[in-house]
């Protein structure tokens, strides 16, 4: 209990000149910092707020007194500082047992709805006793004696606290403080909880409480107020700073005081806390599920499915296909979750499950609909169960049948179709708008669901030979499944708000549901009576929120056992909390409850309870699953323990001759071998150094004597280092070299290993005895001052491979010629074989040894005169200039594997053709020119190399940065190495087996044409107002005609259109989305570009047949769409519409309807407005006798600057004139805005 926060209730008297009577509608406030110099105001109706942050500073020394209802003795006080509330000491030990005298809660009639088929377990019953510190409810009482003195005192000296009452493992108290107003005082009344430091400030607990001043006189009711609050360290008390005035409480006629004593009481009901050591298994018998970020919806449905016992048994019987990846197996992941929920005592993780869904980490942070996941998950499981003994399990549990029918009223004709369903969607409001404010329950919703709709008038039904007939259209249920799932339609589109909203209306449902009246022709005589099994609750609004689920875990029993599953926390609950509290509706006294209500209900048919909720035992779990999950759990526990104990051990890695001789790559071994358990060992850091040798002897050498002068092995410690090339001023790649011989001596044998090795990870080469000429084995002597260790690698010309063939210990003054016979003997060559030598400094630095007759210590020989150098040798009589050790190693180094991607960022080149080409892999050479690479990529993707745009990579982010120009493609020195930025400090390391990324784009023209033409982004619009983006490449010194000629290649003309194109300037922002001007064909390209800044676009469109010519009495009228406000709610595709002088408004309206291809009914919703700029000049009555006057429309063109052929013009003046022009506005609803779901949510997909 040390980790549980301390809860307290406090009370204070408060002077107040304005509080003369209790205000029933006053909202609760958190207890603020007392401040007698501040005007508290005349309005008590203040929203809840936390205690002033100034009270969160370190408290003064705490006042400890024997009687908590007695004020402390006066103490000297610094009047310059603000008074600080005195808080009872935090609990540092387990909660004390309740005192012998615990105030009993008054026995009152409970009006809550009781279960109709099971006895309700009373809170006190499942709490076992008042002494249970984890009970869900508590009653606190505080008697304030000497109330007159209490009212006169200072808040920091007169605050009173009650005795602690433990609820949900947390201690609660009443806190009372006298609070000063301007002319009088009031009682500050709070419920308090103080957490311990051990919780790290992370705990929180939601509580509902009723605060009461108890009546002392018959006929006077208790004064009550309710609060709901999430208590946490920074807001650990909540209540009213002005509960009642002290004058009123002290007045005997009020009925609240007797013998100068008032009594305060609190009924508190707390939910299970988060962030504390809450043992769900201990308190409920069940455990919760961890939340990955926003997976509460998934956790709720998983718990519901887990308690569907027959489904759980069926999931255990699912099998994996032999070629299925365990990590992507949804069946295995579900089995694991169900198994862990039954067998572990801590919250269960779901990351393996979401990974099996094919979700990434982002998917786990997206909120989704719980019913949608239920449907998708059950569909996935049903598919995977096919072909197994349980393939019919899900349909047998969830599938019902309904009949959709249309029945004629006047003739004998009916059309009917049976349909299956897995869930039923119920309205929470009547379909009749006049009944929206009337109470609505689940039976009302069912009757509303099956109520037939009348088809009459224009909606008559076509009954074939009977013609159009009035009819009734509806559905009737044929059968209900054993498990009946209801989705309550709380998320609906509000046409007034033009957005989706959550409907929080009250919707009542019962725990016993009789649906027999809704099933006709029940020939099987099934009793469709259902028990409520689960209530999935959503808190929040349409844009997001939180899901929990209440489940009756013992439907079969005589007593209902409701539990609340809130992610990782499970707690006992009551029927009222699970159901009645989640009917929805407005409860102004309980803040936040209006947003919390049932969203999905799960019922189980009465006659199927034993089958659906059958007992599940360990015998129902296949043995191989139990063994697998237990082994996984043990391995996980071992990994955790190893991680916890890692600081106690050294990681040792041992390389043997066998490992060296099997290696064919760079260096002496592959770093991946270090992951092998045969190589990787652990030993205590504090072990003496001499233990290292016995450890090697016992664990690797296996029994040979490792001590004494004739020890059977020698240890060389590898060091990772680099070599600097002073001539090129570069550093080599890191490499491991056996540079230090480790031997036992009296000085270090008793030292701790960690101090001798000076590292937590040590890599060793175990040198074993070698064969002597006389046939014996021994380890050659080694003098640290005279000898060096050389490793030898041989280039096998016939096999085309380089391999390690052994090592030598030689005098550092000897030459390679002197030891040539020893070297040749390593591969059984004659002693006089001519050899050529190289030093492998690092993978990218292979140095030929030009003078093998020089001593090894010569400056011209080795890069470093140190142990561990690698010498490569080859037969001089076999190799050629193009086939030798150097060329072989260069090839190994330069051949890389690449992944070829299409660059999807076309910002710089919008003309690029994006066709979703898949990623392809291949091998290329770092020494290739970019032209050759372009040919290779083109051959792989089937594209002309001259029309491929290759991209250089960033040196640090593997992202395309600059495109390769035509000149660079033709330059022989610009190679793949430069393309991948593998220059300077960025060096290719072949040991990492890295796959490099190559980015390309497909161009519509050869790359050498890019510099001669101007790339332009345009929009193409067809005759149906469909628009697409495209790129064209007119000549840089061209004109509009060139743009149109380029566009003709990609434009899709209408079958009976004009076949002619024009270029239009169009606004793109929500305040200027309209056509501005039509460019003349001879307009220079530079003027067009200058006249189209960022908030405009160039649109190519086919000239309508009626606009090919324009007479003197005709006008091209711009038309634009807007939704109520043209300032920032313009939308759609604007266009030009030709009108004639004297044409009637009705004619204009009819032709516009045809042009827009909308119905007469739809256009009746449109308003027509004459617009000037972004404002409405006037709305037009299109049914009037008014006619078009061209003279009025032509006025707006006066003063418009002429840009034709003018290389310089005032762009600001031009755009101003464009935007102030006259146009016709169509004011109507923007459907695309109304259909927006309103939240960043994508459909749930289980990919595997």
From TrEMBL:
The keyword Metal-binding does not apply. Residues 287-606 form the USP domain. It is found in: Nucleus. The keyword Chaperone does not apply. Residues 70-83 have a biased composition (Polar residues). Residues 92-101 have a biased composition (Pro residues). Residues 137-268 form the MATH domain. GO terms for molecular function: cysteine-type deubiquitinase activity. CDD domains: peptidase_C19C (cd02659). GO terms for biological process: protein deubiquitination; proteolysis; regulation of protein stability. Its EC number is 3.4.19.12. Keywords: Hydrolase, Nucleus, Protease, Thiol protease, Ubl conjugation pathway. PROSITE patterns: MATH, USP_1, USP_2, USP_3. One of its GO terms (cellular component) is nucleus. It catalyses: Thiol-dependent hydrolysis of ester, thioester, amide, peptide and isopeptide bonds formed by the C-terminal Gly of ubiquitin (a 76-residue protein attached to proteins as an intracellular targeting signal). Residues 68-113 are annotated as: Disordered. Coiled coil: none annotated. It comes from the Eukaryota. Belongs to the peptidase C19 family. This is Ubiquitin carboxyl-terminal hydrolase 7. It comes from Pristionchus fissidentatus.
